[in-house]
Amino acid sequence: MEMKLSSLVKCNREKIPQVFFNGIMAGIMVGLVYFLQQSNPALYVYLIGEDLWGEYATFSGYFLTFAFLIGAICLDRKLFKFGYILLAVFALVIAMEEINWGQRLFHITTPDFIKPINSQSEINLHNILSPKNQLTRYFCYGILIWIFIIPAFVTVSRKLKRLAQNWGIPLVPGYLTPYYLTGVIITFYGYPIVKFDEIRELFFGVSFGLLGADILFKTFQNTDLKISKRIAGFFLTIVFVGLTSLLVYITPKDDHAMKWRYLLTAYYDYPERHLYPQAEKLFSYILESKEYRTPEAVFQYGLFLKKINSDKADVILRESLQEQYVLAQQSPQKSEPNIKAGEILELLGQMDNARLEYQKALDKDMLRLSKAKTDLEKAKAFASLGRTYFKMKSYTLALENFQAAQKLEVSKKKGLELKKWIKEAQLKEAGQVKEDGNEK
Length: 440
Fold this sequence. Notes:
Blueprint: H1 2-39, H2 41-47, H3 53-75, H4 82-98, H5 126-129, H6 132-156, H7 158-167, H8 177-189, H9 196-221, H10 229-250, H11 255-272, H12 276-288, H13 295-307, H14 313-330, H15 336-347, H16 351-371, H17 375-391, H18 395-408, H19 412-439
Helix pairs in contact: 1-2, 1-8, 3-4, 3-9, 3-10, 6-7, 6-8, 8-9, 11-12, 11-13, 12-13, 13-14, 14-15, 15-16, 15-17, 16-17, 17-18, 18-19
């Protein structure tokens, strides 16, 4: 017993440098992410964009886990056990979920029966089964149990060790735990990182990929096909980078999705973390680019500048106002330009003109509602009316229209948006009633 204990202590001591090294590497990776988001927001958003480097690197990590495990099982039939098979299937499912089962890669249209129940109208399960954050938390709890609690119990109990071996439960080597632990930490404390959910997924993808490679490498060592760690590491890097690069290259680019990602990150993600200089850098990049500059981008830039009390705010808002007038002339049936024009005029202190624009928007949506034939058309009209009433601070009317839209809405994504509007309208209505009561 003493010999076994001493050999175990010696083995653990030998692995401490590996744990320390991987811990430093994980820290460097997080540091690079944070540095990039601070110094070059445009490049950062590009790298974590839809169907680009971050997403496909995550896919590659999980997919290679599946491939390496299958390879290991084929080389050593002793690994043909429930635990290893389950991990391989899990890795494959997560990999395919990450790219929506190849929807954009293979130009697959979302089936009509999925659209109403999926919050993103995409082919995947994670946007149907449960809120994504809730699923991720359960996933992280499972990871912590897997990398810490199970190995501890297996170490102290022969029965549990035998049970784990019989079921083929793969154990994470201690020297790989820094990568898994970093993913967990980012999940719970990664708020300072913009789009930290993408970074968290990348860390887990890399972690599982390294585990799959480690299992395959150890399997090779038990055969006549022994290879050195350096060669194995070099091969893993080439395959990982090559697969990621290939997928980025062959996937059709969705310019609309990228345009929206840049804008959303500029007006929401960065300002939400009070990273105003970075948000302004990103806005500058968007407005200087012919590909990404839109009237919506100018409008959001003006709102952003007004919120941070910038001297440039009124200049940009006036520029945006003229663009909204042009849009209103080009699409006289649409109420959106009038709503935005009203909002801009309010910010510029022109309240009477703002009310005129809001009334124009109401008139258009009333006409649109009277001509609507389908529930979806009616729902859109009611939702637009609700937004206009909300801007006019008529919260009771806004709430009535949002609720009318909610009763007709068939899309899960739009349904979630309406819930947010309804909640905000209820809060505003309650505050308004309280103020009126105090005045009386």
